[in-house]
Amino acid sequence: MKKKIYYHDTDCGGVVYYANYLKFLEEARTEFFSEKGFSIKELADSGTMFVVARQEIDYKASAHYGDILEIKTRTSEISAVKIIFENEIFNQDGKLLTRAKTILVCVDENLRPQAIPDAIRAQFLPVLNS
Questions:
Q1: Domain extent at residue 123
Q2: 9, 11, 45, 118: which one is catalytic?
Q3: How far apart, in Å, are the Cα atoms of 54 and each of 11, 61, 85, 103?
Q4: Which of 19, 48, 83, 102 has its CA 20 to 30 A from that of 33?
């Protein structure tokens, strides 16, 4: 996924504010779902939701105003109720800026863990997605 950095993504020094990476990762996961044929909204409307149970981020270098980022997303593990996503974020020069790992848990409308639907499990087997 490509992401252009706008002024509102940065601090007063033109560096991407660290918490904004969480939004970038969310966008990348949403695109990953979409590329696999699943709408997050439609899943939620049918009672299947995913919540972040754990987030790890290693900041290697800064992104800046005007940069074009490439966010690579892959799944590294899927179990009955959780999916582990791994991301790498690169700038337009191919420099690694960030590595992240996100654990999502599938929950029902009452936020209780539930089994990930088989159709999702089949599509989300660990594979690299540029």
A1: 2-129
A2: 11
A3: 26, 22, 11, 5
A4: 19
Give 10-61 pLDDT, tens digit per residue. Answer: 999 999 999 999 999 999 999 999 999 999 999 999 999 999 999 999 999 9
User: Is there a catalytic annotation at residue 11?
Assistant: yes
Contact between 35 and 129 under an 8 Å Cβ cutoff? The reply is yes
CATH number of the domain where residue 43 is located: 3.10.129.10
* CB under 8 A, 24+ apart: contacts of 88-91: 89/21, 89/24, 89/63, 91/61, 91/63, 91/67
Residue 46: alpha-carbon gap to chain centroid: 21
Number of domains in the chain: 1
Q: How many residues does the chain have?
A: 130
Q: How big is the CA angle at 37 (ends 40 and 82), to the nearest 5 degrees?
A: 55
